[in-house]
Amino acid sequence: MSEVFVYDAIRTPFGRYGGALAGSRPDDLAALVLRTLLQRSPDLDPAQVGEVVLGNANGAGEDNRNVARMAGLLAGLPVTIPATTVNRLCGSSLDATIAGARQIALGESDVVVVGGVESMTRAPWVLPKSSRAFPAGNAELVSTTLGWRLVNPAMPEVWTVSLGEATEQLREREGVSREDQDAFALRSHRLAAQAWDAGFYDGLVVRVPGVELDRDESIRADTTPEKLSALAPVFRREGTVTAGNASPLNDGASAAVLGSAGAAEMLGRAPVARVAGWGAAANEPQLFGFAPVEAANTALQRAGIGWGEVGAVELNEAFAAQSLACIRAWDVDPDLVNQHGGAIAIGHPLGASGTRVLGTLARSLERSGRRWGVAAICIGVGQGLAVVLENMAA
């Protein structure tokens, strides 16, 4: 099988729900990151792209069900370049990365563009169709922004609790305190703000034309322990999960160029990292936040290394409680995790988060000189994904 490499990665700034990117369609955001990647590799003939694979959790609106195809056309790719959209909820773009990597590993393509997009602001309401004509009663609109909808009554209620209630159950099981959650959230905001100030994200983020947004909109550099501790729990009266220690709702897009060893000549650039392994895992739906534990362990096993060799981890922070539960289950130094902020500060536009953590990990390894890194993400309904990268310059 062919080796697979990451050659480039880019994303938009992530906007808050109803914020700066509220006027931007998801297909336009996705087209922007695809177009930017092509512009950054001018030696590449766009006709040499084997496929576009994008992740998207809400395909019911302007995403138009196959946003990868829509974005490829809007980005000016030749109409002959096929494109597919994958949906593994929060892990969709990391799943797109794995799908693209498989194509290259099998020799089907030399270059695959992967990524994902989500506009949680513009996710539509849906109206279920009536089972009979002209019903006399009312119908209810259902939001597609986040969480369960139109639930099958055959699903056990223990599985279909809200993401927040599920996190409360996980933090009870794993003994994660409110104080630890708030401290983790504070660290996320401070590290994200410091990383932006230090120029870490320069070249990793492309500004959206016509939008006054230079960096991630949800970062609160001025937050304090006192502000976080004053927030009321959201999901239980005596709970610990708050708006301050959970990721917000966001809009944004991200993408990466994957390629074979031979793609270096086609792209006119050297690879940044090698995709050394990947893994998927699943557990009880209500314990979704813990699923990255086994996914990362599987990815490391397939890469042939252990936690002792890992120098950087990018774990998507859906909630502080689930992040801490995963970190404590791994044999890893917590200081190596999300050294440049995480989703609690940066944001979590569902379909875009996977390649966001992948691109951040590649940059982190490049800057630090460390050899091995893990990108991992939890996924609603009890799944997790992880990818191991090897720094090519280490």
What features would you describe in this structure?
This protein is of the alpha+beta class. The protein has a domain at 4-122 and 248-391: Thiolase/Chalcone synthase (Peroxisomal Thiolase, Chain A, domain 1), CATH 3.40.47. The protein has eleven helices and twelve strands. The strands form two sheets. Strands 1, 2, 3, 4, 5, 8, 9, 10, 11 and 12 form a ten-stranded mixed β-sheet that branches. Helix 1 packs across helix 2 (67-74) and helix 3 crosses helix 11 (353-368). The longest helix has 20 residues, at 178-197. The model has no long low-confidence stretch (mean pLDDT 97).
Summarize the structure in short:
The protein is α+β, with helices and mostly antiparallel strands. 31% of the residues lie in helices and 19% in strands.
Q: How many DSSP-defined strands? A: 12
Q: At the first level of CATH, what is the class of the domain at 4-122 and 248-391?
A: Alpha Beta
Please estimate the helix content: 25-40%
Distance between the termini: 23 Å
Bulk shape: globular
Mean pLDDT: 97
CATH architecture classification of the domain at 4-122 and 248-391: 3-Layer(aba) Sandwich
The oligomeric state of the chains shown is single chain
CATH topology of the domain at 4-122 and 248-391: Peroxisomal Thiolase, Chain A, domain 1
Number of helices: 11
Q: Tell me the β content.
A: 15-25%
Structural class: alpha+beta
Rg, Cα atoms, Å = 20 Å
| CATH superfamily annotation of the domain at 4-122 and 248-391 | Thiolase/Chalcone synthase
| Unreliable parts | none
Largest sheet: 10 strands, mixed
SSE series: EEHEHEHEEEHHHEHEHEHHHEE
